Automatic annotation (TrEMBL):
SUPFAM superfamilies: FMN-linked oxidoreductases (SSF51395)
Record domain DUS-like FMN-binding: where: 21-258
Gene3D superfamilies: Aldolase class I
Matches recorded under NCBIfam families: methan_mark_9
Matching Pfam families: Dus
Protein known as: Putative methanogenesis marker domain 9
């Protein structure tokens, strides 16, 4: 598959596909990444423990049987590990520290090495949370926000990994975005039930940050469940150890979908109650009671303003055509996966492929969100 198939960017980084290898303490190093994630768009190494407190906590975790990266020279290890990853994937580095200063040093090192820094606000092991690290940061938003802001002053591209359903997730996400983070890496965990797909949709509707979703990604169907709720990328963790070829499989399947459909993470329709706000690109003209009204209200649009913004985008594009469709224009037509002989007849007449149609719909979705009277990150 072509490395140019996807247009996925964060800062100066361009990912060749939306599949990532997640960090796993004591497991995800360059050797593991090169063996199992050569085809990935992103590999996140670590987590690495940067100060004496986290190093001591890691040693205690290892003593009771957990895997962890142990080193009293973590910065040298990080630098060497970034260089050791095979060319192809973008590299991220997941780090923990009980103090800010080592995080700043790590940010500068990672920035200069051409990689992404990931702040661990995710680890729930008592040894880490007892010293205010990992998941403990979720309950201290002033501290987390301050750390993010100061780390971003280095110019590094910053991801923050969090665990869902611990605190008020929307409040948390807004604080992380306001502090300046570029990427939200969401472990969408819900106890005993796999990934929390409803929460992924709610978070997608509350932020414009690049969204990586994690938890129970074991095949293309579980990945698609996350993509259709708004994930820009999915990360794979334990499944890689159970099935070493899973990342290559996921890359292959999502690449085929991108070639065929043109929008790999196209949302579900909002009228089904499962689609995020990007799904407004597929909505009919709002002339009758339906979920479109509640969704456009979240963006500050009246029904007329929503109609105007869609028609404004369509003007001069292929979406302007379609007199024979339900509302006289392709701009009001649904997702290509939903059968419609009226839409498909117009596409055939225009010579517009399914993927070209869907790429226009993606541009339309971005246009609707970018011109909203209430920004997405103002949503509840």
């Amino acid at each position: 598959m072509s490395d140019n198939l996807f247009d996925i960017k964060v800062g100066d980084f361009s990912f060749r596909n939306p599949i990532a290898l997640a960090p796993m303490g004591g497991i995800t190093n360059s050797t593991f990444a090169n063996k199992n994630a050569n085809d990935a768009g992103l590999v996140i190494l670590g987590g690495y423990n940067l100060d004496s407190a986290t190093q001591k906590a890691a040693a205690e975790m290892v003593s009771r049987g957990r895997k962890e990266f142990e080193s009293h020279e973590p910065f040298k290890v990080m630098e060497d590990e970034i260089k050791a990853v095979n060319e192809g994937p973008i590299v991220g580095v997941n780090v923990r520290s009980s103090k800010l200063e080592p995080l700043i040093k790590a940010a500068e090192l990672v920035r200069d090495a051409g990689a992404i820094l990931e702040l661990d606000a995710h680890c729930r092991q008592n040894e880490m949370t007892d010293i205010g690290v990992g998941q403990a940061l979720l309950s201290d938003l002033p501290k987390l926000s301050d750390w993010i802001s100061k780390i971003k002053e280095t110019g590094v591209v910053l991801s923050v990994k969090i665990r869902a359903n611990v605190v008020n997730d929307i409040e948390l996400v807004k604080a992380i975005e306001s502090a300046g983070a570029d990427v939200l890496h969401l472990d969408a965990m819900q106890e005993g039930a796999g990934a929390d797909l409803k929460l992924i949709k709610e978070i997608r509707d509350s932020t414009r940050m690049f969204l990586i979703c994690n938890n129970s990604v074991t095949d293309i169907e579980t990945a698609k469940d996350m993509f259709t709720r708004g994930a820009d990328m999915v990360s794979v963790a334990r499944a890689v150890m159970d099935e070493p070829g899973i990342i290559s499989q996921l890359v292959n399947r999502i690449s085929i979908q991108q070639e065929d459909m043109g929008w790999y993470n196209a949302p579900k329709h909002v009228c089904r109650g499962e689609g995020d706000l990007r799904g407004l690109a597929f909505c009919c003209l709002p002339v009758k009671p339906c979920p479109v009204h509640n969704n456009i209200a979240k963006l500050g649009y009246s029904a007329q303003e929503f109609a105007d913004i869609k028609n404004e985008f369509a003007k001069g594009t292929m979406l302007e055509y379609g007199d024979s469709t339900c509302f006289g224009s392709l701009v009001w037509c649904c997702k290509i996966s939903k059968p419609c002989y009226l839409r498909d007849g117009v596409l055939e007449t225009l010579g517009l492929s399914d993927s070209e149609y869907m790429r226009l719909k993606k541009e339309l979705a971005d246009y609707i969100l970018e011109n909203a009277k209430k920004p997405v990150n103002a949503q509840v």
